[in-house]
Amino acid sequence: MISLTQGHLRLLEMCPRRYQYSYIEPVPVPADPVMVERQRWGTEFHLVMQQRELGLSVDQFLRQDPALGAAVNGLLAAAPDLFVPQVEGFRQSEHRRTLIFNGYALTAIYDLLVLGPAQGQIVDWKTYQRPPQPTQLAKEWQTRLYLYLLVETSDLTPEQVSMTYWFVAPPSIERQTAESQTAPPSRITIVYTPAQHRRTEADLHRLTDRLTTLLATEGDLQQVAVTEGHCAHCPFAVRCLRSHERYGPEGDLVLPAIADIAEVPL
């Protein structure tokens, strides 16, 4: 059975061919050194937060990277109530949930899931500097899938669940110091409604039905229309014979902003 995460759904909706080259028949693409370093730092931040939640020591990580220590301590100071030990309920870091849906396994891994008798809170750590607008964040497949799965795999109603994103800015690549961590953590909370739940369910049916149809055909999956504008930021534009969309008229490479690139699930 094929597993679908928020990353799969995002690319499937954007361009089935890109989904194919990313997940079904992975095609290697050159890595941006700056992006790789920021992903490394983000991975370490998530690991520290997970080990703290498990009650393990993180002193070694924080001593090795002062900027990481400043980021963690800044988050603890900004959200002290979030880290108070629970007497009742359920609380787990890197919590995985799976739902069999229309022939596929919908899967989510929550950075932190906090459940009470009548409330569920999903917490996600984001390690980039420019948070999107709340309206845009609510439309992202991570938000939609994570909230949908929590409702479908628990006794909670849509009104009882929410998802909070905490944005922690990474240090500059040039200065890996505590002083380079200047931006304080910020958060955006997305509430949920029955109407949103029904809309997400309908879109999940639409996407999974489409994928089933595409996989039943021979050859490559369907490409997105050029007019949608996604090819200019796609690493597979040359392979898809759409390199003129990715390169300017003088041959200059058009790269997306770092903050616009989705985090890679680990």
Provide a descriptive summary of the structure in words.
The chain is of the alpha/beta class and 266 residues long. It has a single domain, classed as Lambda Exonuclease, Chain A (Alpha-Beta Complex). Helix content is 38%, strand content 17%. It is built from nine helices and six strands, in the order E-H-H-H-H-H-E-E-E-H-H-E-E-H-H. The protein has helices spanning 6-14, 16-24, 33-53, 59-64, 66-78, 134-139, 141-152, 194-215, 243-246, and strands at residues 3-4, 90-101, 104-115, 120-126, 161-167, 186-191. Strands 1, 2, 3, 4, 5 and 6 form a six-stranded mixed beta sheet that branches. Helix 1 (6-14) packs across helix 7 (141-152). The protein starts with a strand and ends in a 20-residue tail after the last helix.
Mean pLDDT: 87
Give the tally of structural domains: 1
Regarding quaternary structure, what we see is: single chain
User: From the alpha-carbon coordinates, what is the Rg to the nearest angstrom?
Assistant: 20 Å
At CATH level 2, the architecture is Alpha-Beta Complex
CATH topology: Lambda Exonuclease, Chain A
Structural class: alpha/beta
Name the shape in a single word: globular
Number of separate helices: 9
Largest β sheet strand count, sense and barrel closure: 6 strands, mixed
Task: Give the fraction of residues assigned to helices.
Answer: 25-40%
Q: What is the ordering of alpha helices and beta strands?
A: EHHHHHEEEHHEEHH
Beta-strand residue fraction: 15-25%
Can you count the beta strands? 6
CATH hierarchy, class: Alpha Beta
Keywords:
266 residues, alpha/beta, Lambda Exonuclease, Chain A, six-stranded mixed β-sheet, 9 helices, 6 strands
